[in-house]
Amino acid sequence: MLRRTLLLWILLLAHTILHAQQAYVFTKGLISGPCHQYGRQALFTDQLAFLLNANKLITPVEGGSAPTNEKDAAGSWQAITADSAGTFSGRSINNGYLYLTYESATAQTAVLNISGHQMVYVNGVPHAGDVYRYGWMYFPVQLKKGLNEFFVRTARSWGRQGLQAQLLFPQQPVYISKADSTMPFIVTGQQNDERWGAVVIVNTTTKPLKGLQLKATIAGKELTTALPDIAAMTTRKVGFRMDAGNIRQKGDASCKLSLLNGKQAIDEKTIALQVVDPGDHYSSTFVSNIDGSIQYYSVSPQVPAAANTGKAPSLFLSVHGAEVQAINQARAYIQKDWGVLVAPTNRRPRGFNWEDWGRLDALEVLAIAKQTFSPDPSRIYLTGHSMGGHGSWYLGATYPGKWAAIAPCSGYPTLMGYGSADGLIPDSPRNNTEKVLLRASNPSNVLKLATNYKAAGVYILHGDSDKVVSVNYARQMKQVLSGFHPDYSYYEYPGGEHWYGNQCVDWDPLFAYFKWHTITPDSTYNNIDFTTANPAISSGLRWAHILQQQQSLEFSRVQLSRSADRHTISGTTTNVQTLALVLSGIKPGATINIQLDGEAPIIYTKQSADTLYLHKASAWTPGTLPAASEKGIQRNGTLKEAFNNRMVFVYGTTGTKEENEWAYNKARYDAETWYYRGNGAVDLIADKDFNAAAYPDRGIILYGHAGSNKAWNALLQHCPIQVSSGKLQAGNKQFTGDDLAAYFVWPRADSKTASIAVISGTGLAGLRAAEANQYFAGGSGFPDYMIFSADLLKGDINAVKTAGFYDNKWQME
Q: Least enclosed by CB within 10 Å: which of 23, 92, 177, 568?
């Protein structure tokens, strides 16, 4: 009955919209000067957002007063007109806002499509941006009768390429969008009976879509997939199964998609498929453990004749540069007779700079590649170009021991030094507050992790005329390595710019260098020098692992040596609370002499277990594995950690009308941003419908406060941070007012791995102050908790009331 009612409602609405205007292109607007600054840290400035949230923003008029810039200089609104292609461009588009309006004859739903912007407020409601101008961001918006206002946030460097905006009035209220599909290649001769693809479903109705299915038909074979719920007024990328078992020849093929409500097709689309032979480059899809979405990786397969010799291939993991698709990265390499090359996606061509969820994507693909191709475990290599050169520096330093050798090509080492589209990570904190906030970015600082490169060979390749990523970065890293590394090679390509053909990645001497290197067996690896800033990201090397830190997110280091017979271990530690030593190969009953930090030796008799746990109090003492409820390698804090483990967004419905609307709009805004940044999808769940037991071991993102989100008390009853209407308690500190905002993380009590991230405020002013979501920017630093007032939007760093990290027992420091 519910399906039938929904179907009739959809058909009736579709009939109404058929007679409506199909599209409206914005051609006139007003532009303001610079008034905001967002980047790779928790601090930000947005003068217009401050005024908008406080209901103090004066309706823009030409020549009228606009929000001030970061130097408190008064601005003004100036008229701007799009060109014949509907593009707003020019130097005036520079870290400000473009004001657009639409006069609607009636209240109605439309689909907004903008490209070239950071985000947009639609009648005060935030929606995600398309800063890289992909053009496929379509999201439903509710237009009111009369004047509708759009404040479009512009970026600093995109004025030359321009910005386009249009309203669409689709003929169907629910439909399939092919603009951003994720599809596998069909490889002849392989088993193609079940693969995964993904497309976007647009729901312009005010009701969530439940129980829909997607039927995929390929060459007569059908597979039907039940779809997750699609929230009201949202787009969602959904995965579906397909069976290409009837396709056996290279050439053209297609997949017909039918969106079903029961047996009734709501929409149908046809998507082209790429069919290749086994020796061709290709892409494969997989279900990501990060969020359950469909991702892909690409392959430059081993030369077929060599692959049939029975000898295990080498494996090359190649990480791409900004705006490069993984399939194009793979195609930049000719096939090797001694190995297979695999290129992950970083979740998007820009994605996360191979940090955060880009890092996790690389690890997922590495694991899949090992399972799929069964490579020689001693011959695993890492390389990449440009942003992928940074990815090689970063992944190589973060995961020593995984690679026989790494080869950064035309890359920059740190986001602190280069920055890219989201800006720099600051390197000179202005006060103790910013110092604490920047501490959360320490895992990005490969210069502090550089001694980890000892575990692998390093080949640096860079063009000496590179104007995009200066060769000085390569020279900097050469200088760093020269101080300690016994095995690195360096080459500057004469006259080479940023891209000087495929040889700037597929360089014969580079692969020759790889061929000389293998991963040293653990049994002969007796000297360890390992540094980490977060054990939950990277905990150790070979037989030594840092399980807990004394100070969260400060750098921890172990420098250890063991005798050839493994019965003596000595060395030093820095910022280590719990250390694990793997004693495999030593027979039970044998005696081991362990001396750390100049203390008296620990004489330990080997037990049946292979791992010894040492804890630092006044001195090092043997102990047990820390409880899973404590901080450790499975869960170590920072706000961003909760956005893992197939997160769900739980929005509040028990506050005021305005607070409830904020919670849903903010959750949707974050879901849109996650989709754009990470090619992902998230469940949006009302607190009244949320049951933690139904989502075991999944990250939870909570929107609202104790009085506005029904799930709060069950999930956060033991948390030292409590937020309610007009009041915020953080340990022994109490703050009052309705303009306080909070970001903080807390472990799920019913899980050993998952965490809860809370986006909260003491009232509508505080909640709106928490709308910024640069926690999705790769490498951006967010501590365990941060409390601030709405004055932060005006650039006042003193608006941060408190920020910091919990200790290992989740108590506030």
A: 23
Q: Name the residue with tokens 């100036």.
A: 78
Q: How many helices (DSSP H) and strands (DSSP E) are in the chain? A: 12, 51
Residue 70's pLDDT is what? 65
> The tokens of 608 are what?
């049946």
- Give the CB-side neighbour count of residue 479, counting CA atoms within 13 A: 8
Strand, coil or helix: what is 39?
coil
Q: Which of 271, 382, 366 is nearest to 320 (CA)?
A: 382
Q: Distance of alpha carbon 356 from its chain centroid, rounded? A: 5
Residue carrying structure tokens 């260098």: 513
CA distance 249 to 242: 17
Contact 581, 554 (CB under 8 A): no
Sheet with strand 540-541: strands edge to edge: 540-541, 544-548, 578-582, 611-616, 620-623
pTM here is 0.95
Q: Which residues contact 795 (CB under 8 A, 6 or more apart)?
A: 37, 45, 47, 70
Taking alpha carbons only, the member of 369, 367, 366, 406 closest to residue 390 is 406
Residue whose entry in the numeric block shows the structure tokens 């009701």: 207
Residues 208-232 have pLDDT tens digits of 999 999 999 999 999 999 999 999 9
Match 């430059």 to its residue by tokens. Answer: 300
Q: For position 191, what pLDDT does the model report?
A: 79
φ and ψ at residue 175, rounded to 5 degrees:
-155, 165
Name residue, tokens 């017979």: 565
Count CA atoms within 13 Å of residue 614 on its CB side.
Answer: 25
| CA gap 289, 280 in Å, rounded | 28
Amino acid found at 655: G
Element (H, E) at 433: helix 432-439
**Digit-coded pLDDT (tens) for 749-782:** 999 999 999 999 999 999 999 999 999 999 999 9
Bridge partners (DSSP) listed for residue 254: 272
User: 585: how many CB neighbours lie within 10 A of its CB?
Assistant: 11
CA–CA distances in Å: residue 396 to residues 401, 407, 515: 9, 9, 17
Terminal alpha carbon distance of the chain: 55
Kindly give the parts of the chain with pLDDT less than 50.
Answer: 1-21, 158-159
